[in-house]
Automatic annotation (TrEMBL):
This is Porin. It comes from the Bacteria. Pfam families: DcaP. Residues 1-23 form the signal peptide. Residues 54-73 are annotated as: Disordered. Keywords: Signal. The lineage of its organism: Bacteria, Pseudomonadati, Pseudomonadota, Gammaproteobacteria, Cellvibrionales.
Amino acid sequence: MLKHSLVLSAAVSAAVMTMSAGAATEAERIKQLEQQLQQQQQMLQMMQQELQQLKAGQAAPGRAEPGRADPGQVESTAVHSVVQPQEIEAEAVAVAPTETDPLGFDIYGFVMADAIYDFKRVDPDWNDTLRVSTIPTQDGQYGEDGEFVFSVRQSRLGVRGEYDTPAGKVTALLEAELFGTGGDAGQTTPRLRHAWATWNNIGLGQYWSNFMDIDVFPNTIDYWGPTGMVFYRNQQVRYSFPMGDDEFSIALENPDTALTVGKFRDECAAELEENCDSVLNDVFRKYNDIPDLSIRYRDNTDWGHWQLAGIARKLGYERLDTGEKDSEFGWGVNASTVINTFGQDKLKLQLVYGEGVGNYMNDGGVDLAPREATRVGNSAEAVPILGVVAYYDHYWSDKWSTSVGWSTTKLDTTKGQDGSEFEQGQIAQINLLHYPTSGVLIGGELIWGEREDVSGDDGYDLRAQLSLKVNFPRE
């Protein structure tokens, strides 16, 4: 169309020039020039319209009309390979992702600082929390009474993400804190809390045990919490059955037997003419070859929830000197509930009982212990254990809250356990917490704990704690 316009314009101009050459008077030449100018203006307008149409066509190559298929779809893909980078980027933004659709990604955590005055004294590796099993039962065992402690070990950092994929929903969680345990006990070192991934209804990694109910943990600021609570982060594979608002899940969990050698911890078998540097503790070891099986059902209601969980375990042990192996059967039942009472208030209760489930307890548990006090012909026994939790979280207002409660752990110890071993513990707490603004908590807590040994010796601790917790801001 544009080519035709140019040819027509040239032909008209030539004709006008020919007429101009043969004109007789000046007036006729002026008139002819005016006509030529008018015709050229019309041609210019036509050319501008053609140019605008061409530009519009280039801005949307290969675009089909509404309701019609695009016959140039394959061809337009080839055109995209030679267009400018900014054009490719603009078109890519307009296309929805097809592989993964991120639903959310979050970096979270907090800094928490504790100032603690301990009126008694506990194991120095655990002096920034009241873990009941670390309370001494002998005077002066950890020094004179009275100790002041600053701590930042409760500080935490985590990342989590959630994605929709063609194969289903995927989630990931990675979380750590600064409270060292095990070989890092007493140190301010990073410690893994969770490394958990899910795909649809399958979960794999390290997370809260399927045998526990984390919602029973009260609104307190001491790190360790209720001694009689099932509290354990464990490596596991879990399948959760879809049940609407309710939950039913089955898990295979990492077996890790808490074993004690009891009375023979510090003895040498002189009567057997063995090296006195070699004690039973050097040859008596746990032996785990089958994962723990846990089942959990949770019913979520308008008034809160109730949960029932069970666990079955093979508690293996062996002697490294003889190669002998044996095992005991461990089992446990955990019933828990959180009841919404008035406003934001919550009543939190748990009752757990079993044999050989001590390492799933928050504190003081043991799974296997020597059955008898004699060395010859002795065997191991799964230790029965009872745990109770009863706490009440009260919210005076949006700015103030108080949590008060009590918890206990009691072991039915064996004849082969040493007199200095833990048999029973209890803890009681009360606090007053203030939330001056979003993401900030400051408050104080009074904590009392008691430990009783197999021998009957006991000890208690009393401490006061002041804490400031500041969450990392989120967008």
